[in-house]
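Input sequence (314 aa), recorded before submission:
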Amino acid sequence: MTSTDTGRSARPTLPQLAALIAISATGSFAGAATALGCTQSAVSQRVASLERGLGVLLVHRSRQQRRVSLTEAGDTLVAAAEQVGGILSVALSQVETIRKGLNATVRIGLFTSASERVIPPMMAALRRQPVDYRIELVELDQQAEVSRLVRNGDIDLAFVKLPIADPALLTAELLTDPFVLLLPAGAAPVSLGRLAGLPLIGLRGQRDPMEIWAASVGAELNWVLEMETNHAVEAMVAAGLGCGAVPRLTLGGRTPGVRRISLAGIVPARTVGIAWRRYHPRLAFIRGVIEIIQRVCARSAEILPPVDREGVAR
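Predicted structure, token format:
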């Protein structure tokens, strides 16, 4: 039997896959039979039928050795079957939850600025729905960590900075988040030509769009401080220690002595999106939450904090 046989289109059945997984786990047909609570001949028949259907050997058999091993094709199929089994197990658990009339929790990962500007209107919108959504919020720092948690199913959705390169995830754009220049209240007006020479205070991990703009005009930015929170950035600006350059969505309440100038159309804006697993076991339920978040974020004028002026002088 070879994998070059044609006309093979039979799909594996769950009993066949269970037999192959058990052989992989126990290393023998006898061990698989014990694990599955059936006869050894039943295990052999299931695997043989699966091999005929697929047209490829899945198990290395040897009369001299009691233990058996899987072929490359067998290992590949087991790896996929275990993933399917995990998804099916979660889905069955959710079906049981629905049958009992309980409401599943949706776990949402988010960064601080989303928690302050997007989550309150999102929660209000969810409460107006006929479905009693139960939301668990998980505040996270690193985008790489967010992607891993969504991919592994530790959280259901996550606010992310787009684009992200992960084939296991699907994403949707929510809004664009332009950069804002923060100036001390008494500072002279800033022209585009002077922007690169300002002593800048930024947020940790949020400097890339400013650097992209600077590279496009052949300038080098003068970063003097890097802070963990926007509140700290604005406090430094108010104290006259420099000028802030931060994404608009990160802005909180007004800080006395600080002016906010939008850099939309000058510095590349961040694209904020939502990410979820491509094969989420509760995809229809999750999509309901995603659609509500999209409707909330479509009103970006209400979501983005106010600024004092749009743009700097050319």
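Checked by second reader. The two ends are 74 Å apart (CA to CA).
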